[in-house]
Amino acid sequence: MKLFCFKILVLFCLSGFYSYSQELVPPIQNFSPSEYVAASQNWDIAVDERGVVYTANNQGLLVFDGLNWELFPLESQSIIRSVYPHNGRIYTGSYQEFGYWETTDEGCMTYNSLTPLMDEINMQSDEFWEITSHNDAIYFRSFGAVYKYQDNKITKIEDLVSTALGRFQDKLLLAPRKNGIVYVNDSGAIKPLEGNPGVIEDLNIIDLESSGDTLYIGAREGLYFYSNNRFKRFWNDKLNSLLAKTELNHIISVSGNELVLGTIKNGIIHYNIKEDSFHVFNRNSGLQNNTILGMAYARDKLWLALDNGVDLIELNSPIKFYTDNTGELGAVYDLQIYRDNYYLASNTGVYRFSNEKLELIDNGADHAWNLELIDNVLYANHNTGTYKIINNQFIPVETRTGSFSIIKRDKEEQLLVCHYTGLSLYNPALEEIRELEAVNFPVKEVVFEGENKIWAAHPYEGIYKITTGSWEDIQVEKIPALGNSENFSPEIYKINDQIISYVNEQWYKYNPFTDKFENFKELHAYDSCRLIIKDDYNKYVFVDSNDGSLIITNLKGDKLSIPAQKLNNRLVKGNENFISLNDSISFVTLNDGFARINLKKVQKEMEDQWISTPILKEFSDEVKRYSLEGSPVIPYRNAKNISLKAGMPVSEAMELKYTLNGEEKLSGTVNGGQVNFRNLKHGDYNLQLSAIGGSLNQVSSENFNFTIAPPWYFSIWMKTVYAFILVAIFFLVFWLNQQKLKKHQLQLEEKFEKEHSERLNRLEKQRLMNEIDLKRKELANTTMMAAKKNEVLMEIQGELNKDKNKFSNQFRIKHIMNKINNAVKNKDEWKVFETNFNEVHEDFFKDLLEQYPKLTSKDLKLCSYLKMNLSSKEIAPLMGISVRGVEVHRYRLRKKMKLESDVNLTKFLIKNF
């Protein structure tokens, strides 16, 4: 019987746990041991003012910068039990070891042990489980004692065995084992907390947490509180009963009206004091483990140190999720709230979500596309047909073929069913359905224009216009392809009585006057976005095909963007759906459940969101790390690969970007927390890390300057050498130019002297030529005068010879004839002629005799007259012979000179001598 009762009790407890597992839960992010690459167990967790997370792990200090996890083990490899960031230091406690971690200028984490300060304190296998600060001092607790660290000294606060450590109203509180609560006064003495300690007497207190004027006391037996100097047991008996079963381990106050209670057996309990209600989040809700060993709360984010991993919960997120971890539900395509129950259409069937439980509708298995509430009747478009859902059962409307959607035209009782082979008309009152045979192709959705026109979207082949005066006379016309390619998977809408189509990432509107679709310029900004719904609250919801974000707008300037990351990238791509419950609450279908969104809270969160400042953790080249405090100078030979590591603490930031300005300009996204710059040019650079929020105008930045030194051949010393060489080259060129100028001057002087000498020579030559010409003329004149004279004398002599017998004195005549003959052959005249001839024709006779040594003086005389180009007639009187005698002499001279008969003697002498 006892065994049976125990089993019933266990079953009751488990069913109690399950009742909280299927509710809508805030976003939960899991960090498994395989992701952070350290031990499973995490004993404590804390967040510093930058948003960096520190976890006390079995293998050391685990640090999460928002992008990467890093493990820093102790030299002793001890388990770290507690962690507490304070004033730039990270204090940690482990087995017989206490100290703090600091970040060096280069970004390295270094550990400084404070254990040597406790050499005079008798520690007995102490292990430090809790650390806090109070009045500029650090207090750390083991199960054996509490210690104080201040001014580089460590002292023990009496010999007190404490199970909890806390602060309340500027007092440091301690919880002696099963002996109430005490505080440390200004002098360091231990005093009991005023009030009625009997309420908490003999309690095993495990945690203390203050919130305003209230101190919350966690014990194994339940939750208590202290207010107005009175101890009381917490008023919610249901909560205390649950805590007793699940073993309370930690308490944290997240606001004036909210507590989070960490348990050993059932995850966390989120309690709202104002509403006196609570929610349980455990493994079934998405936690990795039900054992909560540590908690930290910062900027609306709750961090959990688990027995297996680390989890992050956004407790007050405006987006809450239902997630089917079993995989039974599959991808959800539509959601309707009908009679206070959620109905889900998914790729595995139609489900009802009621009383936080999920159940499949009878006969509702298989793919379901759509749920539609018409005239208070819920219809389902299913892979096997069209159904009504009544009393949790599928009631067939048409099962001949699967259907996509069902729609009602205003003021008509009949419904139009879009199915796999066309359209059907359904009369709910008569429960009659008939197929419209004129439409013999699949129709995914339709919109009505007026009373006699229907626009239908084929799921694959384009848009059709269906005209009908009545349902008996139907005309079908396929619309030519919009744009430059086939209209695969078009979408058709009716917005403000205007027909709109979205095809191939382009928006078109129908112009009834031209009977054509035209580019819809008003929606040009949304060309990359599909419209998934226009609801009754004048909201237009688009999904961006580039990044998967949801854009909610009224097309009048108001816009709210929900990044895909906010929905954990779980949208059903290509079949996204957005269902509005009212103007604030909406639902989004996901690939493993659905999300509930409070749009007003999302808007407020976007306006008040905190964007963390990026952290530059390491800056190094191929050889060394550099200080992050200044502006390092990197040697050029080491700058072929510059790497940096950065962090972006968890916030509303969506991505981390970098911008490098300097000799080169680069930009991009920091993936995995690391960026490499290769082969940068030398010069000065500014690196900017920017955390980008959900809205692009929300940015938080960090700047870092560095310099790449020039290569050795561009260094200061080499530039000095280059300057010296340039100066030397300048002076060398100057000297060479001077030498060249001097040489040129000498050449000019030489040229001038030469030209001057040549000019003088020319003048002298000209003078000599003139003199020669003058002498030649004188010689010619003298010769001609002598020729004339001799010619006259010879004529006189000839006349006298004719009449010599008439003269009485023959002796006298003979004497006169002799004088005339002597005058003609005067040797003095020849000498004068010879002298003048030699002055004009120097070396003529010498050269002539050298070549013809047998020439006589008479031959030479004839040659000289021929050189002067005198004719035989002119030569005859000069030689005192007849012209005939001259010819004979010339003939003999030719013989002596052995000249051919065709050679002109005069020309020969003029040319060669």
From TrEMBL:
Coiled-coil annotated residue ranges, if any: none
Boundaries of every HTH luxR-type domain copy: 852-909
Assigned keywords, A-Z: Membrane, Signal, Transmembrane, Transmembrane helix
Molecular functions (GO terms): DNA binding
Transmembrane helix among keywords: yes
Signal peptide start-end: 1-21
Gene Ontology biological-process annotations: regulation of DNA-templated transcription
Any Pfam family matching the protein: GerE
Name used for this protein in its record: LuxR C-terminal-related transcriptional regulator
InterPro entries in UniProt: Ig-like_fold (IPR013783), Sig_transdc_resp-reg_C-effctor (IPR016032), Tscrpt_reg_LuxR_C (IPR000792), WD40/YVTN_repeat-like_dom_sf (IPR015943), WH-like_DNA-bd_sf (IPR036388)
Residues annotated as transmembrane: 712-736
Keyword Signal: yes
